[in-house]
Design goal:
Rossmann fold; binds adenosine-5'-diphosphate; alpha/beta; 9 helices; about 40% helix
Length: about 290
């Protein structure tokens, strides 16, 4: 029974191995539906608390992000960015609505299923890198594989070496994170996020702790992961320059998508942000 269940799990994971690079079976030309979006939110609402004191952090988000796209999410403080990221990444469940990741509906999943989904099908990059200091760089990169129980040690080392080369850290696998610069640590985190070939990489202010030059290098790396590996990236940022690396910028305001801009320059993004930030208070505040 247990073996069967494990086998089935592995089979369910198999298409994931084809997620980058090789054509998917759904690329067939006629009569087949288009491949599932990497991220799809329908009518997503998230309310904290109840009654008169309830906070409506997300008030109806509809969104579909194709595979191989890079999306920046911006918005004033309190607009719902963190709640959006948490709901989209299965770290929190919406009060209403549906979230699908790589075609899989996650809103009805229990905590164990969500944990498994996050491990095997999502990658995370945080502002504070979140590497384990007691592990080597290579062990940090391979951690999601180990947690998911996949792969041989030898294959793991080969995968880690290839990813470390891709992120510009060739030969650094045996170092400890503390021996690396901030930018290098974030590169390790990106390699770790890529190792399971996830459906989506969620990045939360990934350049918030980096200087301008290093930040640009890390953003170039995320861009390359999208362009040459077909990764899908959703990045929350407050930095208009960081958002210039994305294919589109979503602007949240009061729990709704207030606007979208296709890839554009930092001046245009900053100007749009200012109009959101300086907008007069919404109904409820006014008499
Ligand atoms: P942002 O990341 O854009 O600053 P958040 O998603 O953190 O926005 O917050 C959106 C709204 O939800 C804010 O009004 C915030 O105060 C509220 N909020 C966030 N988390 C909680 C919580 N755990 N309990 C109550 N209210 C919350």
């Amino acid at each position: 029974m247990g073996i069967l269940r494990n086998k089935r799990r592995r089979e369910e994971r198999e298409p994931a191995d084809a997620r980058y690079g090789s054509p998917s079976p759904t690329d067939a030309p006629y009569g087949t539906p288009p491949p599932a979006a990497a991220v799809e939110l329908r009518g997503v609402r998230r309310r904290y608390g109840r009654g008169g004191g309830a906070v409506h952090a997300l008030r109806g988000i509809d969104l579909s992000l194709p595979r191989g796209s890079f999306t920046a999410v911006m918005g004033p403080s309190g607009s719902g960015k963190s709640t959006f990221l948490q709901c989209a990444a299965g770290l929190d469940l919406p009060t209403e609505g549906s979230v699908r990741l790589g075609g899989t509906e996650i809103t009805g999943m229990n905590e164990n299923q969500l944990t498994e989904l996050r491990r095997s099908r999502l990658g995370f990059v945080f502002q504070a890198f979140n590497l384990l200091p007691s592990l080597t760089v290579e062990q940090n990169v391979l951690l999601p594989m180990r947690l998911a129980g996949g792969g041989s040690a030898r294959q793991g080392r080969a995968d880690a070496a290839e990813l470390l080369a891709r992120v510009g850290l060739e030969g650094k696998g045996h170092r400890r994170p503390t021996e690396l610069s901030g930018g290098q640590q974030q590169r390790v985190a990106i390699a770790r996020a890529l190792v399971t070939r996830p459906d989506v990489i969620f990045a939360d202010e990934p350049t918030g702790a980096l200087d301008t030059t290093t930040a640009a290098e890390v953003l170039d790396l995320l861009r390359t992961a999208v362009d040459s590996l077909g990764a899908t990236v959703v990045m929350v940022t407050h930095d208009p320059v960081a958002a210039t690396h994305a294919d589109q910028v979503l602007f949240l305001a009061d729990g709704l998508i207030a606007d979208r801009l296709p890839r554009t320059d930092a001046t245009t993004i900053a100007a749009r942000m200012r109009t959101l930030t300086t907008r007069p208070a919404l109904a409820g505040a006014a008499a």
